[in-house]
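User: Can you recover a sequence for this backbone? Please restate the input before giving your answer.

Assistant: Of course. Working from this structure:
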């Protein structure tokens, strides 16, 4: 039985110096959704986040962007989940993913964190439960493990890369509807179909075996 979402959170680092970095693509995605569906985000210190509530395709949902640094993302998400009595499976976390190239977006339901420190914090603050869902936004890899931190947090990607990432995150209404309703297999299949049909342009993509592939990702710790 599908479990509808109640909370969508986007990970990133606070402050202008990080605003356009690859590590902030999750926060950027949630802000874009908030703007698209006219859901104002307001700072709430008790949650250490900007948070808003509204209707997206008929689904009542809260949007959240932590104001903590990435490694403490779980402080905000855990506080909101506890206060509003939201279960891990009712949460979607949008975040950067070095295992995928820019222009790829994939879904994952539960499982490991692939070395992502923000996700590790989320799991810890959800009582060490890993059943939350993820929107994995590809940002590529610099090719060397020692360069990952600077690649994610200190570099502003070229405009073409930022445009590819933004375009990939523009989910169709039917896919977004499936995501909100928790119909993960349907959403993954549709994302994969989109990727197949649009091979020559940036698009959202998710294969049905995304969960299996994620276990064989870079396995690197990244984030601050």
């Amino acid at each position: 039985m599908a479990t509808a979402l109640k909370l969508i959170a986007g990970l990133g680092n606070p402050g202008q110096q990080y605003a356009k970095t690859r590590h902030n693509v999750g926060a950027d995605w949630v802000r874009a959704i908030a703007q698209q569906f006219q859901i104002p985000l307001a700072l709430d210190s008790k949650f250490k986040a900007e948070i808003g509530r509204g209707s997206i395709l008929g689904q009542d949902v809260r949007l959240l962007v932590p104001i903590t640094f990435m490694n403490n993302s779980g402080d905000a998400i855990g506080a909101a989940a506890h206060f509003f009595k939201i279960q891990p499976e009712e949460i979607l976390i949008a975040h950067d993913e070095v295992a995928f190239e820019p222009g790829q977006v994939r879904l994952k339901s539960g499982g490991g964190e692939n070395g992502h420190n923000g996700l590790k914090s989320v799991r810890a603050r959800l009582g060490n439960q890993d059943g939350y869902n993820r929107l994995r936004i590809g940002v590529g890899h610099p090719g060397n493990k020692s360069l990952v931190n600077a690649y994610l947090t200190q570099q502003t990607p070229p405009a073409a890369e930022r445009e590819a990432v933004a375009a990939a995150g523009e989910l169709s209404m039917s896919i977004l509807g499936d995501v909100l309703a928790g119909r993960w297999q349907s959403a993954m299949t549709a994302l994969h179909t989109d990727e197949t049909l649009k091979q020559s342009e940036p698009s959202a993509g998710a294969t049905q075996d995304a969960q299996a592939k994620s276990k064989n990702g870079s396995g690197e710790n990244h984030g601050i």
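That completes the design. Residues 184-197 form the longest helix (14 residues).
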